[in-house]
Amino acid sequence: MIVRAPFRCSMSEIQKFILSKELWIQKVINQQTQRTLLQIPEKIEEGEKIPYLGRWYPVTWYEQKTPLIDGFFYLPQTWQGELTQRKLIRWLKKEALTYLTKRTAEWSADVQVPVNSIKITTAKKRLGSCSRKKDIRYTWRIMMLPPTLIDYIILHELAHIKVHAHNKDFWKLLLQWQPTLPSLKKELKSYIIV
Ligand SMILES: [Zn+2]
Q1: What is the 3-state secondary structure (H, E, C) of 82-102?
Q2: Model pTM score
Q3: How far is the CA of 131 from the centre of ligand 1 (A)?
Q4: Do 101 and 152 form a contact (C-beta atoms < 8 A)?
Q5: How far is the CA of 119 from the centre of ligand 1 (A)?
Q6: What is the whole-number distance in angstroms between the Cα of residue 127 and the centre of ligand 1?
Q7: What residue ranges do the domains of the chain occupy?
Q8: Ligand 1 centroid to 16 CA: how many Å?
Q9: Any bridge partners for residue 139, and if so which?
Q10: Which fold has domain 86-193?
Q11: Which residue in 42, 72, 182, 194 has its CB near the most CB atoms, within 10 A?
């Protein structure tokens, strides 16, 4: 940790200051070094950054087939000035359904585990779930994560089609499909998804 202080401050004054701010400093360090907050801003103006597929993209206005072009996040021009968090989330849910349906189908063919249906939720804690009828649910919020972690969540749910519990067989199967599993699990914990 680096503390910047004016020349006229004595060491004891600096020490006192650090002690008085210790809790606050610890909180800031936790936020900066351990976990990244992924959240859609309340109000979205031009240039506002949005977390999407693991990166922060500045918003710009223009109707495009795909939102990500040249490092910008394109949204319809008619939304300018009136884009709320709610409206963007509704839009992200549709994007999530397209992206996650395609990606799940690819993985499903790859590991040969058929899926019945895919739905998108707005859950904050439950990133994904899978029923015994092979219906998979994902929260749209995982679209803010890097693609490698989205793949991890998809494979996690596909593994649940074969093994319903988080037991030894489950983790063994998932490790077979994803040899980098331990680091992915750790990486996922480094994000706070809101
Ligand atoms: Zn699970």
Answers
A1: CCEHHHHHHHHHHHHHHHHHH
A2: 0.80
A3: 11
A4: no
A5: 17
A6: 9
A7: 49-83, 86-193
A8: 47
A9: 121
A10: Zincin-like (3.30.2010)
A11: 72
